[in-house]
Amino acid sequence: MTYRFRILTAFTILTGGILLAGFTSVQAQLLSGDAQKSIFSPSALLDRYCVSCHNETLKTAGLMLDQANINDVGEDPTLWERVVTKLMLRAMPPVGLPLRPTEGEYEALMGHLKTALDRHAASNLNPGRPVLHRLNRTEYANAIRDLLAMEIDAAALLPPDNVAEGFDNNAEVLMVSPLLMERYMFAAARISRLAVGPTAMEPISEVYPMSPDFMQRQRMSEDLPFGSRGGMALKHNFPMDGEYTLSVKLQRGRNNTIRGLREEHTLDVHLDHERVGTFKVGGEVHGRPPPLFVLTAEIMY
User: Fold this and answer.
1) Could you tell me the pTM of the whole model?
2) Range of the domain at 158
3) Whose CB has fewer CB within 10 Å in the chain, the N or C terminal residue?
């Protein structure tokens, strides 16, 4: 029993020595790696590979790296961007010289400079020179709507806007040419007359036809109420306050007959999203429907 105990004890001690030796070896390797990382010095690499040519005395390529502060690239970011470009191309030091950085030294120095340049750029943003920004056609129409409560057709008054990078509100290309200024004056005169209204005018009429082949089996426009079927939506400028007569003529077939009279239908007339008239057509409604559905609406702005 004593003999076995001594063997087990010796084996345990021996095994512990192996584990301890292995741990010591791994720890030594880790310390060696940390020591290698701490050896990296950007200024030391510059002194070794660059300063011999790019110094205050020789000024090769106009660079004086012995006077530049690599620990503060913000003092001259343009200089260090030139250095990074040369390092990326492996152009410096020149090929053929006996003393050139290793691949690891190239990557380490480039990584240090790129990180420092990015950090400097992020803390010193430069959006560039501010450009006088005129309104594009859409913005112009929205401004008129907000100021004068008028909907205008900007495309009919102003020429198309220039487009840059897919956007028509890019200030860099929204120039004010003599032709555009002339159109602005024309638009201003036209809009001012519409806003004020005429002092006196004769009765006028406007007809908005719809094609007889136009099928109306569903909601026809985003401007029409949900649940509606058929009909039409349009924009009309009322030149002044007053009473206006609205007449609706239903679609007719080849024999001048109105379609769809077997079932009763409700015909609604809306003005500025408010109902101003309702008519019943077909179904149990007695008599022939009139040729026109007429109503009078008072328009006040």
Assistant:
1) 0.41
2) 137-196
3) N
